[in-house]
């Protein structure tokens, strides 16, 4: 019996032929007239297709998203959406309208509440909430997109694409799609004679359409220093002295938030006073956080590789090409897959935050009524067991975790430092520490195989709150781990439920260290320690190169 | 803490044994959202007397624990502590209480 071995290629040719027929003169080469985009989607997308609609933390293929919700659900339905982020209303409208039915994703941010409601109504079947690297990996195994709708900054007449600083997910999406018989459709802000650099070769792109407006970019990593509290300054002092200096951390990633912004702003002041310059924090996998500008200017930072860019940082990045990964054209080339891999394998420390943590150290941002997904935390906040290269921080963490163990578990190896930095109470006095994560209830409600835990407790090495640092590497039993967490859980019900004698014993052993134990007087924790106390200070520190988005200009 | 139009009052008394040297009243903090002001005054008794006025209702158990821990840290005698709270977290409350006491000279 003869078998056809190029079915995908034939199907691809059929789709391209349909597009040519449908569009006629509205298609020239790869260029599609702006007004013909819905007809294009009708011609090339088939019901049941896996479709990637580029939506990241920042850059959005928003014009193509608006086009996709205009297709006729009678003709195109049961799509399986495979994408990083659900950020725009259209990302969920496709399910509401009956165009798509299945979803695999990583992060849902602003759409978290609506997603929870659509899932509970049975309108979306969730394959899984993935880590970024897991989702990208499955693009190359069993979740390969048939059609990908991507965003780039500009295209030339042939269809060579320039992504600008926010390359983000584009390389992973295009590579998987273009090399498996799929189709790549790009929206661009402008069509130019020559792109500044070719980020995606024309041969990998099937259609280019100029969007009426530049694609949406969200300044997700900008934190106004004016909103940093004294408690956050105190926690940052403990992080620098009790963790970064303690382990000699040189390679690291910071999650988003005011807690870590405070650390960044204390490096050139408090860090300097401790004599730590050159001894910690020289290499980063990090978006271009404006809060890092004073530390960069003071010579603390050698390199930063980024997942995406940050609005307003373009000129600053261009002028600091020794630090950032910029191309010959001077602009940043970010890459989410590479930066996630760097965070997973090359960083010695990840410090992030969470909404809930239980007594085993499991944490989740998926809470009742709101499924926000996890972003990069599951990759950054886990120990890469395939790692081989040694560094002092990695070795020390591994030695602490393995002390006294024998056999396979006692074999010498390092461990990544994974720190959860949380104030004991969140806004509206919601305790961050709980006996049972909402994730368990969500798993029951949505029929998930596993509770949506963001960072697993056995990957967490330290919990840092305003009450001190719990070093879970030194805990030898589940009971010790529970009391170490209760011991820094403050006045939450979990904290008030501590065994005071056992917590004091853990403190004597250095498992729990309070500010005073670290030689930090908490009254020194004032906003005066911040290297910049306002957005204006950040602009000044950048020599006027940083241009914050209008919403942050409050002077 | 939750918003409410009415103010909740609480009072706590502890026996102390560390008398500060004579001092003029100390005031720290500001009355504003998520913050509080703390005043410490000398009193003609041997106790540490703490009065709290808070805009956030329903957190008496947490206040009791915060104030108890404060007293265990300092064991002050002969002082009256007045707190005007606008929804500060326990961490901020503890910080302000310690800041207020920091200026007092206390016999060991």
TrEMBL record, chain A:
InterPro entries in the cross-refs: MadA, NagB/RpiA_transferase-like
E.C. code: 2.3.1.187
GO molecular function ontology, one term from the record: acyltransferase activity
Keywords, ordered alphabetically: Acyltransferase, Transferase
Organism domain of life: Bacteria
Gene3D superfamilies in UniProt: Glutaconate Coenzyme A-transferase
SUPFAM superfamilies: NagB/RpiA/CoA transferase-like
EC category: transferase
PANTHER family: ACETATE COA-TRANSFERASE YDIF, MALONATE DECARBOXYLASE ALPHA SUBUNIT
Protein name per the record: Malonate decarboxylase alpha subunit
Protein species of origin: Sphaerotilus montanus
Automatic annotation (TrEMBL), chain B:
O-(phosphoribosyl dephospho-coenzyme A)serine modified-residue sites: 33
GO cellular component assignments: cytoplasm
UniProt keywords, alphabetically: Cytoplasm, Phosphoprotein
Compartmental location: Cytoplasm
Main localization (coarse): cytoplasm
Posttranslational mods: Covalently binds the prosthetic group of malonate decarboxylase.
Pfam family, one: ACP
The organism's place on the tree of life at top rank: Bacteria
Ribosomal protein in keyword set: no
Name recorded for this polypeptide: Malonate decarboxylase acyl carrier protein
Organism: Sphaerotilus montanus
